[in-house]
Amino acid sequence: MTVTALLPLPRLAETTPGSLDLAPGGWVSGPPDLVESVRLALAVLDPCPAPGGHPDGAGPVAIDVVADPGLGAEAYTLAVTPDGVRIAAGDASGAFYAGQTLRQLLGPDAFRSTVPRGTRWSVPCVRVADGPRFAWRGAHLDVARHFFPKREVLRMIDLLAAHKLNRLHLHLVDDQGWRVESRAFPLLQELAAYRPRTIVSHYGEEDVFDETPHGGCYTLADLAEIGAYAAARGVTVVPEIDVPGHASAVVAAYPAFGARPSGAHQVLDRWGISSAILSPLPPTVEFLGTVFDEIITALGGATATPYFHIGGDECVLDDWAASAEITAFRRSLGVETPAGLHAWFLRTLADMLASYGIRAVVWDEAFVSGGLREDTVVMPWRGPGVARRAAAAGHSVVATPVFPLYFDYAEAASAQEPLAIGDAITVADVASFEPAPSSWRPGEAANVIGAQFQLWSERIPDGRVLDYRAWPRGCALAEVAWSGGPRDVADLIARLTAEPGGHLARLDAYGVEYRPLAGPRPWQRGGAGMRRHRPGVVDVAMVARHLERLTHDADSTRPSV
């Protein structure tokens, strides 16, 4: 194994003369928090904390860890010599990433759950100095359209950590389901977390449903476990409660919080944009405040959860405009339009989160509406135009454009690909992405704090398909987000496929059912082609008008949603 197969590729990595034999059971010495991070990263070695913080000279080769705050957050140096391993880390995450780099140097078998007794690894002597360009390097996982059991979420955290990705954005609610317990509002898990069937037909075809019930929900204890598991591995969970639109599941359980409380509501059994929207009136704000508090408390407070995503996307405001009560409330605030009320509503929630010390995160429609708090983080999914405008306005920006970071899109326009929302986004497309374009002004580029890939789950029904969609495109995003810009595609492919110890061999050892670069394996093939999903909603004409408006507004200065 050599440094040329490391992923992400470190800023500085060079071999030095000699090698080091490593066997399970060695000592790790140093500050307890750094030692624990290294032990987690190198669990396959089963290293032991040295008594008193320092090894006594007996036993296998030692790993010595020291703190060096001057290196910066998440940064580290790693030196492997014939006498042992020395790590200097800026913080616990830096120590963890140093351990991950050493794990890669051990070879693919280090990514197995365990190895046979007597296993020893010969590691080349190296010197590595590394740290990330971007603070936000993430993945978005939609657990609302299809629910993923806790085991899949914990596994995703492990895979993110192995790639030095540090944000897990959990999309916990949408029209098709609510996915987190509320003790104050139990109908959310009893009714809103379940739909009796799911559409399986495609755009332009007659509606066909699978007639199979679908549901699931994380308890608050589950959420606390997920958050703690992630934090130990340098990953921050960013919960999303998407409001005020995408509200079918919420108003199915609690109609009074909807803009049409007298109407009939159900958890949607089809995809697309729904007209269902929460009311902006005070009882709804109080309801959301209670739910936010439950989630924040479960995740450990603002220190553990410094970001909370409140959505703001794809909101159809027709019911707000039609409601005399909501119109009167809007006018009492001195707000002129429903779009202005949308901005007021999101600002109110962001102010509520700020009282905890938490920054709100929104999709770019909320920025277009105007009126955001200055500290609100914007995720511009509709392209570089709106991203640049948000950055120029002083907002922190996390790059999330449909192309090339929506991994629910297929990797090829081929009938062999499993059914996807669209096509095609390839590993090369992701590797060529520039989160902070060099053409932007320096102040604009400085406001880009990172990038993340999106896994919307309309066409991701289970963990096997999740693996297929996420990897190895996620490897390319990890490279881009760590280094800060486009990567040499040929070099990346070479490191993925190197024999005998390329990165795909590590994923094989881990058990990841990724998409091979040459195309799907026979059992991964979809056979249904690349037809887009049917946007079944209450009013297709209304949604068509809305989508036209969305496209226009992404590159417009006119505030609407």
How does this model look, in words?
It contains 20 helices and 19 strands. With 561 residues, the chain is an alpha/beta fold. The strands form four sheets. An eight-stranded parallel sheet has the order 17-16-15-14-9-8-19-18. It has a seven-stranded mixed sheet with strand order 1-7-5-6-4-2-3, with helices on one face. It has a two-stranded antiparallel ribbon with strand order 10-11. The protein is globular and about 80 Å long. The N and C termini lie far apart (52 Å).
Short descriptors:
561 residues, alpha/beta
Write the layout of secondary structure elements.
Layout: E1 12-22, E2 27-29, H1 32-41, E3 48-49, E4 63-67, E5 76-81, E6 84-89, H2 92-106, E7 121-130, E8 136-142, H3 150-162, E9 167-171, E10 173-174, E11 177-178, H4 187-190, E12 194-195, E13 214-215, H5 220-232, E14 236-243, H6 248-253, H7 282-299, E15 307-311, H8 318-322, H9 324-333, H10 338-354, E16 359-363, H11 364-369, E17 377-379, H12 384-392, E18 397-399, H13 402-405, H14 427-431, H15 442-446, E19 448-455, H16 463-470, H17 473-483, H18 489-497, H19 503-510, H20 540-554
Parallel strand pairs: 2-3, 2-4, 4-6, 8-9, 8-19, 9-14, 14-15, 15-16, 16-17, 18-19
Antiparallel strand pairs: 1-7, 5-6, 5-7, 10-11, 12-13
Helix pairs in contact: 1-2, 3-5, 5-7, 7-10
